């Protein structure tokens, strides 16, 4: 089996839109959640979100092209370019047919859909943009990235709600393992901090309403959690076959050792209460990597800050590892700081796993203030922890019952 490693990371997020700012804010416990500034929230019960900070679209997308793309594609293009540059990948020296892209989006161009529907209703069908369809479809970021970098290998987008980026990274892993490509850009992009998303998620009672304390609204595993915080951004990894990376003297963050994919087959939005589906995904990822449960040091949890997810995921960890081992595993939720990037979440959270392995630091779960007896594991509360991480898991659990777990390990 061909070994696959991460050599490039690109992030656009509410806590920073370059790698070092992103990482330094995470390990410092900085919240990226605030009052929404993009639109008037006067009539909304939810007024908070994780809006992207420090992002200069002009640095990544020419002005003329910006108008022909949805914001989610802006983020995806930027994160992909960062990953390519971070990896030092020179496409002029590569066979373009051996490099591909699997970058998805849980919702796609929702801001475009909202704007164009308004144009249709208020001004009539003739005022709908001819770019509407290519702007809003969820595969367009992957296509645009390939065009930008002349990557002619496998190219598509998985769409599986909040598990999207995990499925994309996992698919890219398999593509390189099979030998269908030597390198792949993989991850997710999302731009859902808009009226439609906040109204929709808000009306289904999925979002936190802690409007008076935005920075404390996302509090995974805390007893006073009341919902997730919708956020935006992108996370894209450059992954490649190990020997390919070594031939070009690339810096290697870590190895992608395996993945596990399951479905709850239970409910449209709620996880099965036992956590059985998530537990199977973790077990499969460990088995796929040829490891044992005792080898796992760290889990970057799905950790959404919803009452159901957090206690269910805790049960899943105990079921997978047994109670004794489960209490020894470090678990943290990046969403406590970034909010929930939906289809892009696993892109940046996989980056967190890679950086934790490379740099020997586990980011905290902030806002751990009131213990929940149903969430009683080591969530690395409030303060980052310097420690060696050899094996890390990233959990992604999406509406529809989609469960995906990716395993990352140090390169031996």
Percent in helix: 25-40%
Q: How widely separated are the two ends?
A: 15 Å
How many β-strand runs? 14
> CATH superfamily assignment of the largest domain?
Thiolase/Chalcone synthase
In brief:
The chain is an alpha/beta fold. 34% of the residues lie in helices and 18% in strands.
Description:
By secondary structure, the protein is of the alpha/beta class. It folds into two domains: 244 residues, 3-Layer(aba) Sandwich (Peroxisomal Thiolase, Chain A, domain 1), CATH 3.40.47.10; 152 residues, Thiolase/Chalcone synthase (Peroxisomal Thiolase, Chain A, domain 1, 3-Layer(aba) Sandwich), CATH 3.40.47. The chain is 34% helix and 18% strand. It has 13 helices and 14 strands. The protein has a ten-stranded mixed sheet, with helices on both faces. The protein has a two-stranded antiparallel sheet with strand order 2-3. It has a two-stranded antiparallel sheet with strand order 11-12. Strand 13 and strand 14 form a beta hairpin.
Explain the layout of strands and helices:
Blueprint lengths: L3 E9 L6 H9 L6 E2 L12 E2 L13 H4 L4 H17 L11 E6 L5 H14 L8 H5 L3 H10 L5 E2 L7 H15 L4 E8 L4 H9 L29 E9 H6 L6 E10 L12 H13 L9 E3 L6 H20 L3 E3 L2 H4 L6 H15 L1 E2 L22 E2 L4 E8 L3 E8 L3
Parallel strand pairs: 4-5, 4-6, 9-10, 9-13
Antiparallel strand pairs: 1-7, 1-8, 2-3, 6-7, 8-14, 11-12, 13-14
Helix pairs in contact: 3-6, 7-13, 10-11
Q: What keywords describe this structure?
A:
about 400 residues, alpha/beta, Peroxisomal Thiolase, Chain A, domain 1, 10-stranded mixed β-sheet, two-stranded antiparallel sheet, 13 helices, about 35% helix, globular
């Amino acid at each position: 089996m061909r070994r696959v490693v991460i050599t490039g990371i690109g992030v656009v997020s509410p806590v920073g839109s370059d790698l070092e700012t992103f990482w330094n804010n995470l390990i410092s416990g900085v919240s990226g959640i605030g009052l929404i500034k993009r639109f008037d929230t006067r009539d909304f019960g939810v007024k908070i979100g994780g809006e992207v900070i420090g992002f200069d679209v002009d640095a990544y997308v020419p002005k003329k092209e910006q108008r022909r793309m949805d914001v989610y594609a802006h983020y995806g293009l930027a994160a992909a370019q960062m990953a390519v540059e971070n990896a030092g990948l020179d496409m002029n020296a590569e066979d373009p047919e051996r490099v591909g892209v699997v970058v998805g989006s849980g919702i796609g161009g929702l801001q475009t859909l909202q704007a164009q529907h308004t144009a249709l209703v208020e001004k009539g069908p003739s005022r709908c943009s001819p770019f509407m369809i290519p702007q809003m479809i969820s595969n367009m970021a992957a296509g645009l990235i390939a065009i930008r970098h002349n990557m002619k290998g496998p190219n598509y987008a998985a769409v599986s709600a909040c598990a999207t980026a995990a499925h994309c990274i996992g698919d890219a892993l398999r593509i390189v393992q099979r030998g269908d490509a030597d390198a792949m850009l993989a991850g997710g992009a999302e731009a859902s901090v808009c009226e439609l998303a906040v109204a929709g998620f808000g009306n289904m009672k999925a979002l936190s309403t802690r409007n008076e304390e935005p920075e404390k609204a996302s509090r995974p595993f805390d007893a006073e959690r009341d919902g997730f915080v919708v956020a935006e951004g992108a996370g894209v990894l450059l992954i490649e076959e190990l020997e390919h990376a070594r031939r070009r003297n690339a810096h290697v963050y870590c190895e992608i050792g395996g993945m596990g994919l399951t479905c709850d087959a239970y409910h449209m939005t709620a996880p099965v209460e036992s956590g059985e589906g998530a537990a199977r995904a973790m077990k499969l990822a460990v088995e796929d990597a040829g490891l044992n449960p005792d080898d796992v040091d760290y889990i970057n949890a799905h950790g959404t800050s919803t009452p159901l997810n957090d206690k269910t995921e805790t049960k899943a960890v105990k079921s997978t590892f047994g109670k004794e081992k489960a209490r020894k595993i470090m678990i943290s939720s990046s969403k406590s700081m970034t909010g929930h990037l939906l289809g892009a979440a696993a892109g940046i959270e996989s980056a967190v796993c890679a950086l934790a392995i490379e740099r020997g630091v586990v980011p905290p779960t902030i806002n751990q203030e009131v213990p929940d007896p149903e969430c009683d594991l080591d969530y690395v509360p409030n303060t980052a922890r310097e420690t060696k991480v050899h094996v890390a898991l990233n959990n992604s659990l999406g509406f529809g019952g989609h469960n995906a777990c990716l395993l990352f390990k140090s390169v031996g």
